[in-house]
Amino acid sequence: QVQLVESGGGLVQAGGSLRLSCAASGRTFSSYVMGWFCQAPGKEREFVASISWGGANTYYADSVKGRFTISRDNAKNTAYLQMNSLKPEDTAVYYCAAVQTLTSVPSRQGRDYNYWGQGTQVTVSS
Predict the structure, then answer these.
(1) Which SS3 state, helix, strand or coil, does residue 38 take?
(2) pLDDT tens digit string along 6-40?
(3) Residue 104 pLDDT exceeds 80
(4) Cα(61)–Cα(5) distance, rounded to whole angstroms?
(5) Are 120 and 8 within 8 A, CB to CB?
(6) Other beta carbons less than 10 A from residue 79's beta carbon
(7) Is 30 left (phi over 0), alpha (psi -120 to 50) or beta?
(8) 102, 98, 124, 108: which is closest to 22 by C-alpha?
(9) Alpha-carbon dihedral sign for residues 83, 19, 48, 12
(10) Distance CA 30, CA 90 (A)
(11) pLDDT tens per residue across span 56-94
């Protein structure tokens, strides 16, 4: 079992940057595919980005391609989401998620992940 704790959210002006971190407990972090999802008020949870065990494979939602970068440091049991050129429509609670899987393909579906963090609020002002 793994516990996930996000940090790094906050209030930023449009065009600014934030770096979210997701710290994981446990000694098998390198065997988990990691994902980032977001949920805005009144909207369903959406996929943002995902990354394979070693970081070789990454996927992004079309809305964040070229602006966000997902990465991981397995030595530190931490995944990251670097968010640049932020827009007001990026405002949401951001969640990291993990699944221990034999496949190296990082899923874009929330239903495929079985561990979730508590979320961190990102607010982008115009």
Answers:
(1) strand
(2) 999 999 999 999 999 999 997 788 889 999 999 99
(3) no
(4) 22
(5) yes
(6) 31
(7) alpha
(8) 98
(9) negative
(10) 29
(11) 999 999 999 999 999 999 999 999 999 999 999 999 999
Contact between residue 124 and residue 13 where contact means Cβ atoms under 8 Å apart:
yes
How much is the pLDDT for 105? Answer: 84
Q: What is the largest CA-CA distance in the chain?
A: 43
Which pairing describes strands 10-13 and 120-125: parallel, antiparallel, or unpaired?
Answer: parallel
Report residue 122: phi and psi, to 5°. -120, 125
Q: For residue 17, give Cα distances in angstroms to 3, 14, 30, 57, 81.
A: 26, 9, 27, 23, 11
Can you give the pLDDT at residue 34?
96
Query: CA dist 82 to 43, 66, 97, Å?
Result: 23, 11, 16
Chain segment 107-120, per-residue pLDDT in tens: 999 999 999 999 99
| CA-angle at 13, arms to 19 and 98, nearest 5° | 30
* Block residue for tokens 């964040």: 64
